[in-house]
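Researcher: Go.
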Amino acid sequence: MQDNFYPGLDITSTSPPLGFLYGEGVFGPQPELRTLNSIRQSLLDSQCGGPEIVYAIAMDVGKSIHKEILKERMLLFGLVTYATGKLGMEPVRSQGHIHSVSGHSNWSPPELYEIWSGRAVIYMQETAKQNPGRCYAVHAGPGDIVLVPPGWAHCTINADSRTTMTFGALCDREYGFEYDEIRSRQGIAFYPVWNGESLEWQKNPRYEDCGLIEKTPEKYTSFGISGGKPIYAQFEQNPDAVQFVSKPSIKEELWNNFIP
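Model: Structure:
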């Protein structure tokens, strides 16, 4: 596994402080900082200690020459970088959410992840309801692509407490995050917990019995995605190849029984 992956954009993650540096010809905002206090409601131990800033997120980045076409196609590229350390017994992670239904597509949009550095687990479950349906923990490293399907609850985990983890993601420009159902059950259906430097999974008793499948990412060739090539480069060379992110209906038949 490579240590770092060049994403086709002149962007560098920083730590400390958590954030990003944008190179010439690249646009991007000041990152928003997510604190430990803001995610406590979804953790195994809501009183745990850990880094004060858990992750930094920058939504809407890209090459300046593509700014208008990204808007026209309702596509948005985002970045997140995660702190080192632990959240009590858990790894540094996001709290988990479902994407709000987009007004232009009437779908809860998918999200196309790409790991840039570190080790990640993209956890996802079919719903945030008491019966969560199928649950997956997808292990990924630099250069790996992971596709989260429409409507699924998901969270992102830094799977190595000793290093930061950074990823880019292509999503719908009309994005929104829904947290309430997950918070009502104090998190996702399986909590990641440390056993030394290995991750194990503890069932959240607020959900019905269900199983967890741990795996590596699929290839997603049926979606027209090329492995080993940066997502942004695939957009740059052929914007139609990733249009399903903001128009999920064009791949409607592939979402049934989807395996991440």
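Model: The domain at 11-255 is CATH 2.60.120.10 (Jelly Rolls).
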